[in-house]
Amino acid sequence: MNASAPVPAQTTGREAVIRVRDIVVKFGERTVLNHLDLDVFRGEILGFVGTSGGGKSVLTRTILGLVPKTSGTVEVFGENLDDLSERERSALERRWGVLFQQGALFSSLTVKQNIQFPLRENLKLSQRLLDEIAFTKIEMVGLKPDVAEKLPSELSGGMIKRAALARSLALDPEILFLDEPTSGLDPIGAGDFDELIKTLQQTLGLTVFMVTHDLDSLHTVCDRIAALADGKVIAQGTIETMMAATHPWLRAYFHGTRARAVQAAHG
Ligand SMILES: Nc1ncnc2c1ncn2[C@@H]1O[C@H](COP(=O)(O)OP(=O)(O)O)[C@@H](O)[C@H]1O
Ligand SMILES: [Mg+2]
């Protein structure tokens, strides 16, 4: 499938909550995204893969409006982000949550205060309600209530990721952006985190855009996969579609030594 091929039949008729069209992003002379198109459908977990340094984080940040694009459009919930007033824009931003690659929490704030940060910025709530929400989110991501009063420096890597996830869920978003959420975790920690994402998607009806290079994640949690190479989406579909793709990078990635081990594990 080439970049300009129509969206596969199995996905037509579904609502694209994110529509990226003809996006070009350049840094100086270097073109990172080169007329890229992508849809993310309501309720799915889309795994976004590609070469390291290929522009996965740049695309994520472009969708979020954090990187200026040269041309192209990004629509979220049917709204062209370039057409929004500041007020409409912040209303829309409250409908998505983001967990960046570094997943950084504010180091001087407790977990509870970190989770409450976006709530305080956006809403006027009593301290009692703020606490209630923080404890709900802490439970939702599988942490014990006693982490609420801890500082990030007192937590393990996996706990920090969960706390950062709790913060990204503070405003009950409909879309969750995750940039390599399991990087830095051991395989068991990564598997547990993947399972949590899947559970949250199913119970909260989230749409998830997940940048990952983790083959286990692609097999176990992603409903669909899109692959980036040469600044474009070169293939998209199920894991089976990706395995059958002929592009050299996809063949190397999905049929390499690591891929064979993962496939054996997933039967
Ligand atoms: N703000 C920036 N200024 C200049 N170059 C950048 C900037 N952000 C990313 N890049 C470059 O864009 C390319 C894609 O980066 P990135 O999206 O982070 O890759 P990855 O696919 O690994 O997430 C890299 O070559 C990176 O150096
Ligand atoms: Mg990246």
From TrEMBL:
Q: Which Pfam families match?
A: ABC_tran (PF00005)
Q: Using the record's annotation, list all stretches that form the ABC transporter domain.
A: 18-255
**InterPro entries in UniProt:** AAA+_ATPase, ABC_transporter-like_ATP-bd, ABC_transporter-like_CS, P-loop_NTPase
> CDD domains under this entry?
ABC_Org_Solvent_Resistant
**Quick check: keyword Transport in the entry?**
yes
UniProt-recorded Gene Ontology molecular function terms: ATP binding; ATP hydrolysis activity
Q: Which UniProt keywords apply?
A: ATP-binding, Nucleotide-binding, Transport
PANTHER family annotated for this entry? PROTEIN TRIGALACTOSYLDIACYLGLYCEROL 3, CHLOROPLASTIC
Q: Hey, which family's this protein in?
A: Belongs to the ABC transporter superfamily.
User: Can you name this protein?
Assistant: ABC transporter ATP-binding protein
Origin organism is Xanthobacter dioxanivorans
Organism ancestry: Bacteria, Pseudomonadati, Pseudomonadota, Alphaproteobacteria, Hyphomicrobiales
